[in-house]
Amino acid sequence: MSIILQNLASPTIEEAIEANFNEEFAHLSKGRPEGELHKTSELTWMFTGSHGPNAVLYSRFASNDVTYINAKINEMIMFYRTRNVDFGWSTGPSTLPTDLEQRLETHGFAYVDRTMGMAINMQDLNKHVFVNKDLVITEVNDLDRLQILRSIEISGFGASETEAQNYYDAHANTGFGDKTPWHHYIGWLHGEPVAIASLLLHAGVAGIYGVTTIPQYRRQGIAATMTLHALQEACKLGYRISILSSSKMSDALYRRIGFRDFCTIMHYGWSAGL
Predict the structure, then answer these.
(1) CATH superfamily of 121-262
(2) Does the model's pTM come out above 0.90?
């Protein structure tokens, strides 16, 4: 079990954010029959099949030698090329060498996106955020409730059936709830399931994921209520630091709650068609 972080000291918090993000992504490979998760002292990479996601999540090379780094990059390209799939490569605070992004670009990788890592010490929560007092929140404790979570992912995020099913399968096969790292919550308004949020306890921090409200119930304080509930549940389990990444839609909300920026994860992509 990892030591639970007590403060936002750098570089520990940046490393914890990165590790929690990577674990959230890696669990997709752990929960699927065709999934593969590979780890060495220098690399962590995953394969989940022809439809993905497939990615190098962590890279911290022991040598800065150009020939050595190029060989390692080519090894990863060959791993995915033999499987005839596209794949991504993420770089973050722990990545070495620090110019790996440029080296990836020389091998045909293209910039795709970036993820901002945010964090908060939960003693600094803004206690004046508007919440919806009519919302009833329950934890997902069986596969029937997990199906509800899957349905709200589709309507709330606009996720495809395949994407939502991938997450359902991963959670169903790796477990969730009591004495596991994953906890999922459903918000009910007047008896109808309208929102979801998930909690991942890993690397000493509580990661908040998958907060969404179905469109017709937005702007009623529901997302804030779901987020604060997940934070309160993490506190009950002894966690003091929470992390997440925001979208354009949710950024203002998380900043009101008290989250602030700590690091950036860069995402690059390589196409098997090259």
Answers:
(1) Gcn5-related N-acetyltransferase (GNAT) (3.40.630.30)
(2) yes
